[in-house]
Write a structure and sequence with these properties.
8-stranded antiparallel sheet; mainly beta; 25 strands; single chain; Immunoglobulin-like; Jelly Rolls
């Protein structure tokens, strides 16, 4: 039996407080391209030149990412395919924050780089991995402004969380796995801002009107786009939430609770080893929003989940002084 590690409070406390008073779009990328905010535009699949796009999958995250292994749900994109975010009018201006978790499966060469982000297809401005030791290693490149960071830092084995923060003065900072990795002064060029003619951000694939084969196949999960600059503390919080959504530990609770089936459709069963003692059951999404709360005390209890959208959820079970948290999938 596995149980969700006690970063649960961090997940809930984060919710959307990071962007309180501002606007955040969160794209879980579990089974569609919509954000959890209904006002947000859907992400758009960009096919490669062969018409291939990708699919939703679950991947194993290696222990090298967060200290322990886990699973991540997200979107696999084919070689030279990707996703596009159409920037709504007046959403992103000079300051913004982007966060996403990714893994590149193969650094295909030539060309000697792999595209991560781009902001316009006119002059090809973006963030790349420059292949310093292809086909397995590379470092960061602010195209066309040069390479930065530790040589051979990125690999085809590890997962990464990349956060790009641009403030009102045009200073860009890139964080990788919660730590500052590089910065660039964009105050004069103002190229790392979505703008005319198409006002978009592209993840992993250039706009089809530019060169083909500038990207590689890979995986992305949990894209967050916010219209103001996060502080270093907020960046760290996003990193901790990412790890919280992955990590599992062996169960040590005395309750020995079981939940099944997983994935669930209309009904989730909760089996308590300790019966006759009331347990509180709460169901949250991965962003800390609670959808239902019920009380149970039988050996096998029925929880209605038919009203939930498809996706990943957390179920928190409190009985006496014991707390257990599990992740389950709603189909």
């Amino acid at each position: 039996m596995k149980t969700f590690k006690y970063y649960f409070a961090i997940v809930i406390s984060f919710s959307f407080a990071v962007c309180l008073g501002q606007t955040t779009y969160n794209y879980p990328l579990i089974d569609d391209f919509s954000a959890i905010q209904t006002s947000a535009p859907d992400l758009i699949q960009i096919p490669n030149n062969s018409g291939l796009t990708g699919e939703f999958v679950t991947r194993i995250v290696p222990p090298s990412t967060c200290g322990e292994g886990g699973n991540a749900d997200g979107y696999f994109f084919e070689d030279d395919a990707g996703l596009l975010f159409n920037n709504p009018l007046d959403f992103i201006d000079q300051s913004y924050s982007l966060a996403f978790n990714f893994q590149i499966d193969e650094f295909i060469s030539p060309p000697p780089w792999v595209r991560i982000l781009s902001f316009t297809h006119v002059d090809d401005i973006g963030v790349y991995i420059c292949l310093t030791n292809p086909p397995t290693n590379g470092t960061l490149e602010f195209w066309p402004y040069g390479t930065v960071g530790e040589e051979d830092f990125f690999t085809t084995v590890d997962f990464y969380q990349m956060i790009l923060v641009r403030n009102d003065d045009g200073l860009i900072k890139i964080y990788v796995n919660g730590e500052e990795f590089a910065e660039y002064d964009d105050s004069e060029t103002k190229k790392f801002v979505p703008g005319d003619p198409d006002n978009f951000i592209v993840f992993f694939r250039d706009h089809p009107s530019v060169l083909a084969d500038e990207a590689s196949p890979g995986f992305v999960s949990d894209i967050i786009i916010c219209n103001y600059a996060w502080s270093p503390e907020e960046v760290l919080q996003v990193w901790e939430d990412f790890c919280a959504s992955l990590l599992y530990i062996n169960e040590t609770s005395e309750i020995r609770t079981l939940i099944f089936p997983n994935p669930a459709q209309d009904v989730l069963y909760v089996s308590l080893e300790k019966t006759g003692v009331i347990a509180d059951v709460q169901i949250f999404d991965l962003y800390g929003r609670m959808f239902t709360e019920v009380r149970i005390q039988e050996n096998v209890n029925t929880i209605d989940v038919s009203f939930l959208k498809k996706g990943m959820y957390l179920i928190k079970i409190i009985q006496d002084s014991n707390v257990e948290v599990f992740k389950f999938k709603k189909e």
